[in-house]
Amino acid sequence: MLELITLLQAAFRRWWLFVLLGALGVGVAYVSSVTTPTLYKSTVTLQLNPAANSALLPYGSSSEDANPVAGMAASYAEVIRSRSFSEIVVRELNLPFSADAIAASLDVGLIPKTNILRLTVSWDDPDSAQQLAQKITEIFLARNVQRQGGAASTQTRIEEMERTARSYPARIDALRQQRDRLDQTVARGDLSRLPELNNLDGRLAGLETSYANLLVEISRVRSSMDTASILDRATPAAATSGLPLLRAIPFGLASGLALAAAVTFLLERLDDRVRRPQDVAAVCGNHPIGVIRRIRGRRARQARESSHILTILDYHASLAEQFRLLRANIQSASPAGRCRSLVITSSSHREGKSFIAVNLAVAWAQSGERVLLVDADLRQPSVHHMFGVSNQGGFTHALSSLNGTQHAEDSVTEPEWHGEVRQAGGVSAATTAQRPALGITSSGVDNLSLLVSGPLPANPTAVLKPTIAPRLLEQLGDDWDVVLFDTAPILPVADTRLMVAGVDAVVVVARSGQTTNAALGECLQALGQLGPPVLGVVLNDFEPGLLGRSR
Predict the structure, then answer these.
(1) In terms of Cα–Cα distance, which of 550, 353, 374, 358 is closest to 454?
(2) How far apart are CA 30 and CA 24, in angstroms?
(3) Are the CB atoms for 76 and 57 separated by under 8 Å?
């Protein structure tokens, strides 16, 4: 059941594929239906005579229960559709077509439970279809007769008997009229005509018997020569098409949707991306420490307009509650029951680690604890954009101070703060402790301070050292309860690996539908070799889909 739900969710995610291939199937079906040449069919009806043995079509069975009509029909069908017979037709009719074209146009079938056989010719011209059907049938029957031998003398005998038989009905009618008149005379009392009436009745009976015997003989002789006879000549050709449009379109749509389902199934099997909490559990052995759902509609627009700080935007929003739940899970998972320093990272770019770090910091500050958010991503910093503050001074100044080097910007006293971020409910922002020497500035949120990245160094790995985090935490002293580091991704660069030593824990962010299982596994393996415990994985941008929450 879970597998079926997964496939249905995959189909819902790839709805565009079903629309595209469904429309493509309808289009192909429409084009095929309207461009397929119109064919015309003409049919000749034959009556089979299973009493005769054809030299051309030897058929029959030793079994008394065998159906000779069915056997004859099967033999006819094979011979008529054969290439050798088609070559005979092309040669005798002097046709400008190949034997294969003639064979492909023929169809022969027996009407069930009868001795009626139908030969149908399909052609692109109605007159040609009708003429071919009649001519092909006549050629076949003529060839069949010729193969029996003695055809000429037998045909002459039949013609003589038929001429004789045609004279019988007139003679019989004349005798019947004479008998009726004599019968009336005798009925009026003239018994002298009775012998004449009896004589006339005898002559009439003899003539009728002779006529019946002649008809039987004609049928017998004809049966000994013909295995079939034409019952109905070729019918006028009727137009047909390969596939009617009203049937082609549903068929094309069904084919397109079936292909889309097959492609979706294949892509789902080949897809190595993390999508569900179960996928995270399969990689790291534990369910995510937090799941942040995808934002849509009004919340998405507000988040873009408010620099993605959802917990400030709507304190009671369900998404804000997800970050408060994440904070609680991190505190519960911390080895000592309390996490004072935490690194937020990911396997690669564009997985939402800064989004998670910022909102987690706000959620932590809203709980009443003093929080410092450090933008330690010296490749693509974004914290100052989210809070609308200046990026002067900051973490790079702190690195220069800790490394004992002079920085060109050290003369800057206190970083300037631009913009204002309001808490939900209209609570004014308060400025927390300031450390101008390090470039710490206010975020505009109670209990939350920022250490922005500052000017980016040309080579971040040259200024980052394994002792940076412990020394920075020592210098910060007891001014903050929690310090969060938003760092660079693990896999593309070595920055985070050089500064995770000394922090209490690490949280990894994976983006649903983007992070691959391999990348997440490699990220966790790399962090496992560096020392600080990995508390878990945050599944970001998760979308349960149309079918509801994943179980």
Answers:
(1) 374
(2) 10
(3) yes
